[in-house]
Write a structure and sequence with these properties.
Length: 546
């Protein structure tokens, strides 16, 4: 598997493979762009046709609803004109007259009623009495409007059994032209032959109709029974619905209260002041476009595969080893171009050749860098102690001469300290040179930490060290302070492996220009002071001689 994966990775870097994939990518992108443009075009055309079709259906259904309402109002008006003046005197006679007309003209499924200004109501049947019982008499909206002489369509309401009802009413006028009673018909909204086109028909699979009363802000009828007599959504929920409530009639796309995008057609029902909405989800409307897109995407796969094969065969013959990299190498070999790495754009066949050349060039440069580092190490070793990394005697003497020149020029002073470790030889003898070397390294670190960065700590040789304290305002006090620091840092045990070693130090010092004005005499003075301190004060007592 590892070998196969390696071969696949190598083949994926091939120029042929890359060009074939590039060509396929161009074809696929072009196809996708065309499909998108075609989809948008088809959506626009299908949307226009669907909107026109829905508007036509909505117009037909709205006209049917309008005709049925007008027919019921016309019937009420004819009956109101034929109501004998003497009949209202006896309610039984009136009830019989109403029942007879109800049987002859059954446009109101629950029946007819006559309401008088004094509150009496005469109905055509006990069923109608029961249906109106929750309202405690005729609903006030249509009764009040008709009492004033107007034909009215009341707000739809639910009867005693929960069925949706609506009342239509006309005035009954007397000889003087005044309203003496109100003749009303009560119909169930789901009665056969009334709003059946709204409630029993679908548009496509998921679409349907809505009948809306803007005055009452109510859904009068709907293909979904759950929406009947529900309040319309508040403003802002459905922008197209808000426009329809404000008087817009036409088509549009909107998102309903349930979050479903719909294509809607809106038509007025003039007789009732309502409007009808024919709606269908856009997913269903544009489903054909989506299916066409999937079909085109599937069909295009075969030409793409053929195209890949053609590109692979043609490009293998067309591509030859490129000469740009070879020409650059030739120019470098002749000295006509600087020796520098060639750019590697991709790790294909040419990239591997260029990478090999750059690798060879890198090896040469690594050898040159190693040589320079070796020279730098040699220069460092010439001026630094190999064991401790401190400046050696040669560098120390050079810095001492520089310090004298600067002090003479600036009129300043400096101090020189010579340090010799006490009892270092017994450590070497008892524990070996490896322990002694580590001890010297840690001593060097502690001495370097006891002075400023501008000062110099050097290893002169063996267990001897020297410290150069530069540019001191009071060289004697500075030397004494550094002596105390050195004693303090060396007084703490030094851990080497499992050992805790303690060494003392004898320190001698010299001040420039008090003790001497040249390097040799300063060194001799400090060295003599160090030996004097070692002889006079013993192993752990030291002296700085100024």
């Amino acid at each position: 598997m590892a070998i196969i994966a390696a071969k696949l990775r190598k083949r994926s870097r091939s120029i042929v493979v890359r060009l074939v994939l590039f060509a396929v990518l161009v074809v696929v992108i072009g196809t996708i762009v065309r499909i998108l443009f075609l989809s948008d075009f088809l959506k626009g055309e299908i949307g226009t046709l669907s909107a026109a079709h829905q508007l036509s259906m909505a117009t037909y259904v709205a006209g049917d609803v309008d005709e049925k309402i007008m027919a019921r109002i016309a019937l009420l008006q004819r009956l109101a004109m034929r109501l004998p003046p003497a009949i209202p005197a006896g309610s039984d006679t009136l009830r019989a007259w109403i029942r007879e007309r109800q049987d002859s003209y059954p446009l109101f499924s629950l029946g007819l009623l006559v309401a008088f200004p004094d509150g009496r109501t005469v109905t055509s049947s006990r069923d109608l009495d029961d249906a109106l019982a929750p309202a405690a008499g005729p609903p006030i909206d249509w009764f009040r409007a008709t009492s004033a002489g107007e034909t009215a369509i009341g707000r739809p309401f639910r009867g005693a059994g929960g069925e949706p009802l609506i009342a239509l009413s006309v005035p009954v006028t007397g000889d003087d032209g005044g309203t003496v009673a109100v003749l009303a018909g009560i119909a169930a909204l789901d009665a056969p032959g009334f709003l059946n086109l709204v409630q029993d028909n679908r548009i496509g699979r998921w679409g349907g109709f809505l009948l809306v009363s803007p005055r009452d802000r109510l859904f009068v009828a709907a293909g979904d029974p759950r929406m009947v007599l529900r309040d319309t959504p508040p403003p802002g929920v459905n922008p197209l619905h808000d426009r329809a409530m404000a008087g817009y009639r036409g088509t549009g796309v909107t998102v309903n209260a349930q979050g479903v995008e719909e294509l809607s057609a809106i038509v007025s029902v003039p007789a009732a002041g309502w409007f009808l909405v024919a709606r269908v989800p856009t997913d269903e409307t544009f489903g054909a476009v989506d299916r066409l897109r999937r079909f085109i995407s599937t069909v295009i796969l075969l030409p793409v595969l053929v195209l890949m094969a053609v590109f692979a065969l043609v490009l293998r013959r067309m591509l030859r080893p490129l000469t740009d990299a070879a020409g650059r190498m030739h120019q470098m070999a002749l000295g006509r171009a600087p020796l520098e790495p060639l750019p590697v754009g991709r790790m294909d066949e040419v990239g591997e050749l260029v990478f090999g050349f750059n690798h060879l060039l890198g090896k040469l440069r690594e050898q040159e860098e190693a040589l320079r580092e070796s020279e730098a190490r040699m220069a460092h070793m010439a001026h630094h102690d190999a064991l401790t990394g401190l400046p050696n005697r040669a560098m120390f003497e050079d810095r001492l001469h520089q310090a004298i020149v600067r002090a003479e020029r600036n009129g300043t002073a400096f101090a020189l300290l010579y340090i010799d470790l006490n009892d270092f030889k017994p450590v070497n003898d008892a524990h070996g040179h490896a322990v002694g070397d580590e001890l010297l390294r840690q001593v060097a670190q502690r001495l370097a930490g006891a002075v400023r960065r501008a000062d110099t700590v050097a290893r002169i040789g063996g267990d001897e060290f020297a410290i150069l304290l530069m540019d001191q305002q009071n060289a004697g006090e500075a030397a004494a302070m550094v002596c105390e620091k050195c004693h303090a840092v060396l007084a703490m045990p030094i851990r080497v492996a499992d050992l805790a070693l303690t060494v003392g130090a004898s320190i001698g010092g010299a001040l420039y220009p008090v003790d001497a004005s040249d390097a040799d005499r300063l060194i001799a003075h400090a060295d003599q002071a160090m030996y004097t301190a070692k002889r006079t004060f013993g192993r752990h007592t030291d002296k700085v001689t100024a």
